[in-house]
Every structure is written in structure tokens, then in C-alpha cells.
């Protein structure tokens, strides 16, 4: 293997492979280094891929990608005290091109996307750990690996090595995370026949559903549950705040079992068999905790750059990874064309990000971490909603209060100041 490339990309996840595709298609000599023994070895089992950005990288990707189901039903559930409210946002057009999103199994999807990078001309090396970046003065000029060849040099290094990017810290682009900037995702892959999935979720053909849930099953810990239907399996899990777990002396598995025990969820999972369990750290600090995204000779993309948005009812990760990787690859091409790899030249990365979905989503939802850190979001508000609806639908033998009277009585339990403060934060974060 050569020890000199135009672009070196660390990490073969969605961000890294997308960057590699864009750079290799433009004729650059690209090396992708993946620490896993195979692409996808370090990833969680599944999730939902919002598809518009990938369609820009690989037009009509759905004709060949290893996808599970197009998601045509997105459900939001709030639970409290044995009660629940579920809102189903369904759209039949999401079952047709260009679609809105698909459930995917990451080990299959990531391997396919890496293969597309190789088809474009990139060199992929797996089972290789990168220990550090190589400095030449203030500029990054390569990486130090544990392979026999050791050092590899490149005009541009793109870090797409995940949430715990030690390389970004060593390059001086990121400070250590604060505890509240990190979420812990735990996930199970559960075997269930396609016919059973369709019957229980009210689906037809290969259409799929997604569920996001908050409520008392989380024991007041900031975080929520999620569920995605695959062809013949269910991806189910939770994203939780690690420090809150420590403070309450709970394990993530204990909270996950409480989510699975919610009657409305348990009914969907009855008879399902565990295939796989995984856990993964997730950047949840939002826009205000993002690292510096570029410097002389280097760019940062995907989870390593903090490109994740979690509002409690929507979760964007893979699409933002692909979007940021695409922009990083395009910025590398522009810099190579100018033969200028300075921070000033690579600052084009921000311009490209600002013109697309990635940076825009981070800025729009910059208050989401504040909203998600409030225990009221996961206990008092589900209580408020379910208390209100219970009183509305319960008919006794005496007089029934008007709905506004019931609503005012329930909202007083939280307090008007909290309602106003959380309402403003919520509006700004969604």
C-alpha cells in the first residue's frame, strides 16, 4: 500500500464513506481506514435512515441498497401511570420514490456504502487502528497507524471516527466532552416474522413503522425509547443520559426492560426472540458543543463532529453523518483543485454545510439538548397530557368540568413559570 494519498479518511461509517465517494469520484487518491475487522463491526444494529441526502450522493440508491422497510408510519407515544397517548403520523406517499426514510441494519448498510466508495476508486483498509495525526508545523499531514507500514501521509485528513474521536482531541479541535453532552444508546434486535409485524403494526406489504416514546418507564431519567420495524425483525432500544443512570443507581438494561414492559410495547414484541444486543455512545450536546470542524489539512465529520439531533420525538443521525461527509468530500475536492490545504481554504467546508441540511439542522435545534435534559419532559409532561385526556374521556354521574377548566387545573401542577420556560425552549428546539 502506498504511504501517500490525496485524502485520508479515518472511519468507514456513513460519514467517512460518503466523503470517500465524493472525493474518489472527482479523481482524488483516497484512503479509508477502518478500525473494525470489517465495515459495520463497531456499529449498533439498526435505525432509521432519512433518505434525501443519500439520494444526492447515490441517486436512486433504493434500487440497490440493503434496506429493510420504507417508514410510512411514525408514531409518538407518551406514557404515565398505566396510561398512554400515541399519535400516528402516517403518509402513504412515503412508500414511493423518493421516499422519506427507511429502516436499516447498520452492518449491512455500512458495508454496502463502503463498497460504493471502493467502486468509486477509494482504497479501504480494515482492522487498522489510527493512534494519532501527524503534524508538520501547524498543519496535519497524515496519520500514525499500527500497521507495519506505520505512518501514512495525505494532503487532507478527514476524521469520521465516531463520537469518541480521540484524534480530534489530539489535533486540537475538540475539548473533552462534558457528562451532559453524551447519551448512551442501548439496542436489541428481535426476531419476528414479517406477517406478525404487519398484523401488529397495521402495515401492508413491505411498509414499515417507527415509534419514539417518552414517559414514566424511564424513571425520570432524561431519555426515551425507540422502535423500528425491519423486514423480519424489530430494532428496539433507548437513548439515556449516563450520569442520570449513575445518580439513580440504575443500569441501562433495567430501564430498557421497563420500556419493553409497557403494555402497548409488550403487545408488539410478544414472542420475539433476541438476536443481538449492542450499546453505543451518542453525541447529544448539540450545536453549542460541536468541535472546531476544520484546521490546516484536516476536517471533521459525522459523530466525531457532533452531527446528531435528538428532540425526543425525532432523531437525526445517519442523514446528518452522510450530509456532513458529503460536504467534507466536496471541500477536499475544492481544496485539491486549488492545491491549497490551509484552514482558510478548507473553510469552504462550513459554506457547504450551511447550504445543506447538516449545519442548518444543528442550528435550528440548538436548544434541543436543554429541553432533553429536563426531567419534566419525561415525567411531568406525560403525566399532564394523560391526566388531561383521562378526565376528558371519563364520564361520571355528576357534572363534568369544561375542558379549559380541566386543562388549567392540570397545568397548575407544573407551574406557569415552568410551562412558559419549557414552552419557549420547546418552540426554539423543534
From TrEMBL:
Parts forming coiled coils? none
Alphabetized UniProt keyword annotations = FAD, Flavoprotein, Oxidoreductase
- The chain positions of domain ETF-QO/FixC ubiquinone-binding read 183-281
Q: Which cofactor does it need?
A: FAD
Upper lineage is: Bacteria, Bacillati, Bacillota, Clostridia, Eubacteriales
Instruction: Give the species this sequence originates from.
Output: Desulfitobacterium hafniense (strain Y51)
The record's annotation in Pfam families points to:
ETF-QO_FixC_C, ETFQO_UQ-bd, FAD_oxidored
Family to which this protein belongs = Belongs to the ETF-QO/FixC family.
FixC-like C-terminal domain sequence ranges: 369-429
Record flagged with keyword RNA-binding:
no
One GO molecular function term? oxidoreductase activity
Q: What is this protein called?
A: Protein FixC
